[in-house]
User: Which sequence fits this backbone?
C-alpha cells in the first residue's frame, strides 16, 4: 500500500539514528502538494509585546516644533523687513523734498546776489559820477578862489579863501535822518 509520511524513529537505512520529524508548518503529501499551516493552531511562542518607538516620536515632535518656530520667526522677520522698507522709502522721500528745497533756496540766493551785484555796480557808477561832479565843483571853487592879478586893487579880490569855505558841509542822508519808527 502506501508509505507513511512520518517516518518512525528507529534505525535508518544508512545506519544513522533518526529523530522524529518536527512539523515544519508545511507538510508535503504525495504529489508534492503542501498543506498551509492551520491558522487556528496555537503558535509555538507567544508574540512579543510591541513597543512604541518613543525616541523617534520625541525627535519628530521636537523637529515639528522647531519647524513651526522657524516659520513664525520668518513671518516676523518679513514683517520687520516690510516695515523697514516703508520707513526707508519715507526717509528717501523726505530727503528728496529737502534736496529740492535746498536747490530752490540756492537758486534764490544766487538770484539775490546777482541783483545785489547789479545794484552795487549801479551804485558804484552813481558814486563815481558824484565824486567826479564833486571834483569838478572843487576845481571850479579853486579857480574862483585864486588871487586876482597884480594890477587889481580890490581888497575883496585879494582875500584868500578860508578852510571852512573850501570844505562843503555834510548833509544827512535819508537813512541817517530816519527815526526808529520808520518815518
Assistant:
Amino acid at each position: 500500500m502506501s508509505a507513511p509520511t512520518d517516518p518512525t524513529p528507529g534505525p535508518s537505512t544508512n545506519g544513522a539514528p533518526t529523530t522524529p520529524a518536527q512539523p515544519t508548518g508545511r507538510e508535503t503529501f504525495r504529489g508534492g502538494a503542501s498543506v498551509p499551516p492551520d491558522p487556528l493552531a496555537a503558535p509555538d511562542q507567544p508574540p512579543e509585546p510591541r513597543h512604541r518607538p518613543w525616541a523617534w516620536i520625541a525627535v519628530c515632535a521636537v523637529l515639528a516644533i522647531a519647524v513651526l518656530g522657524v516659520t513664525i520667526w520668518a513671518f516676523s522677520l518679513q514683517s520687520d523687513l516690510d516695515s523697514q522698507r516703508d520707513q526707508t522709502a519715507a526717509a528717501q522721500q523726505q530727503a528728496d523734498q529737502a534736496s529740492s528745497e535746498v536747490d530752490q533756496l540756492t537758486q534764490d540766493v544766487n538770484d539775490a546776489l546777482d541783483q545785489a551785484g547789479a545794484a552795487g555796480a549801479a551804485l558804484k557808477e552813481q558814486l563815481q559820477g558824484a565824486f567826479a561832479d564833486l571834483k569838478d565843483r572843487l576845481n571850479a571853487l579853486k579857480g574862483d578862489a585864486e588871487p586876482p592879478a597884480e594890477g587889481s586893487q580890490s581888497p575883496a579880490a585879494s582875500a584868500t579863501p578860508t578852510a571852512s569855505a573850501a570844505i562843503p558841509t555834510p548833509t544827512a542822508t535819508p537813512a541817517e535822518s530816519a527815526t526808529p519808527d520808520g518815518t
About this structure: Helices lie at 54-144, 163-166, 174-177. The first strand starts at residue 27 and ends at 28. The chain has a mean pLDDT of 76. The radius of gyration is 65 Å.
